[in-house]
Amino acid sequence: MPLRGTGHGKLVGDEAPYFESLAELDQWASLPHEKLMAVLEYQARPQFAESSNRKGKLLVCHDYKGGYTESPSGLCYTFNFWPLCDTFVYFSHHRITVPPSGWINAAHRQGVKMLGTLIFEGSGEADCLQLIVGCPQAGPTLRTDSIPMSRHYTSVLAELARQRGFDGYLLNVECPLRGGAEQARALAGWILLLRSELVTKVGLHAQVIWYDSVIFNGQLRWQDRLNSLNLPFFLSSDALFTNYFWPPSFPALTAQYFMSLDPAVINDHANRPSISSVKSLQSIFTGVDVWGRGSHGGGGFGSYKAMTHIDPQSLGLSVALFGQAWTWESEQDKPGWNWDQWWEYERKLWIGPADPQEVVPVPDAPRRPREPECPHDPFEPVSSFFVHATPPDPTQLVFYTSFSPGVGRSWFVEGVNVLQTEDGWTDVDKQSSIGNLVWPRPSVMWEDDDCPEPLPLASSTLDMSDAWNGGNTLKVSISCAGSTADDALFRCIWLPVQSLNVTSLVSYDVNIVYKTVACEGTDLDLGLFVKPLMAGGGDLPEINVGASTQSYLKNGWTRQVLSFSLPLGIVNASIAVGLIIGFVAEDPSRSLDFSVSLGQLAVYPSSLNARVSKGTPGILWAKFQSIKPLASPSTDFSGLLAWDIISFFPRLTLQAISISSPEDPNPAWVLDDTKERFPSFLYFNIYVNPHPLSGSVAGPTTAIFIGTTGLDGRANRFYVDSTILPKNVMDGRGLRFYVQGVSDKGDVLPWEMCAHVDCMSKLGGR
To answer: Which domains does the chain have, with CATH numbers?
Structure first.
């Protein structure tokens, strides 16, 4: 949450961020709670490429300083490699870890499943048994020959996932089961019940992943691979997350063992109804600890050695990468360390160094006793092992990006800097794609395929000194050598920005905001365009692209919008959205430089039918509920802002209705019945103005920005902490708070469509 004067302390009745015991979970379940409405629903990525279905996937297990460390008043760790990731686990050592809403939104925006953690370790044996048998009531209980299974906690845990908006659990049972094989069997049966409840309450995509820990007889014995000892728990779950201590031969042994299983056991091609999921090699996530604790290769920049043996691309096993924030935690105490240094270190691990010629040093890893030497090729980044996936189809979830890594030093609204900080801010809820075709390295090409000239040099950086909406731009710098060719006066390049998968029978709109800077003697001409990337084994389809419209915005920004669709006969395709950049040089023999700062990009279904009555979004009202104690000062304005959003149609006139007779087949009006029929918002900007001691309050254009929504996952509310409100607004008769919406397409509502509320001091009255 970018902020100047807001806090996010716990409110009365606020939901617990995590639970230390099953008793705390039961207490939560006994109270009423509403589903978080500001958390995005999971939308699956398009699955067009059959080959990718046979390649291993990546699970990232986020164990960072105990969890829940994100501070809105500083530059913190964020994860930015969602296109490589299939499942993300928010991990901590609390009994039930609930992923924060901002992390859920960041994952769901890019089609990644987000899991919480259920963990039993140390003294957790009693809770682990209670998990299975439920929460017994007072009075006699039924005596059975074996450990009974109850749906109680499966129902509560599934309801928790539904209410908070995440997609399942990692089950980490690292304490022995004193009930032996009986308890182990009951636990495996309980897992099936949990899967069933999650599928019912969360959806078919819900996941339960078992961590390789206890085995069939209840003993705590990590196996480091799939075998008969942990097989029963794998069969009850959706996937297995193996321990990290495996020798190089274990991944191949795991695959060999899996292939020996009866297809009926793994539910492959089963003709019977079953709540068990179909298993494949992809369902086995082989553990790699980036901290190197017993992991082959020693972790860190040697983690690639372990992934080479797992071999997701050929063998087909998946990878569970644990503790990926090693890049931050291992470096943060070194002299001169800062966020920019971390960003360079992080990208080196995931996508390689900025300079492709740089050799990444890989420390020698310790070998186990009697373990033979295992030679490896030079360093490979994590990204080289996995398929790069596109976000969900924009028909299912509007694609929007402000190219934000989830941190910043300033905050901009429509190109205007409304907040400047000393220490920066972190808000994972604001994180979006950084442009998978332009970062980390743009792939420019000549628009004229026959051009013999060397391609211009291109680089991209996050620029936190400027933005359209948010905290930064993605700045693409182009350097082109001089040319003496006859046609060098005007040259043209294609700059792809983002890949997407789209479907037929849908028209899409693309909306981009950018600004340019060119060296003296160079003129630029930019055009928004869409091109095909690939088709299912055939020729690349020609995309139907309409003419673009262009408008000039404040502070040097430009907006372009165009529509496109797939041609008839093409079911789906992968496309690239980008810019065609023409540049004219007064003296083409001299080298030239220019840059394009990308502010935001949105792709969404077009509105084609002019007869359809579409709603206009607005904010109907706002209210302020004070939560200050009775003895608090008269100028304490701590409280809760709340508001309601609306959609309204243009004014209807009888002249617009043409009904010729009672038999006329045309309705009086046609309403929008698509998913876009009611407005959806990315976040809300909050501002404040003082009520002066004399005269009237100033208009919203002079108001002071104090923050955005997004930290707590609740829709249409904002907590105001009086202690950190700007001092210069506290000396009047009261305050006026303004609520300004930003739509899921990145459009900021005009002030006349927004709402405000007054809060007067005790001395000022109401």
So the answer is: 54-66+81-135+145-260+279-353+363-385 (3.20.20.80), 399-605 (2.60.120.260), 612-760 (2.60.40.10)
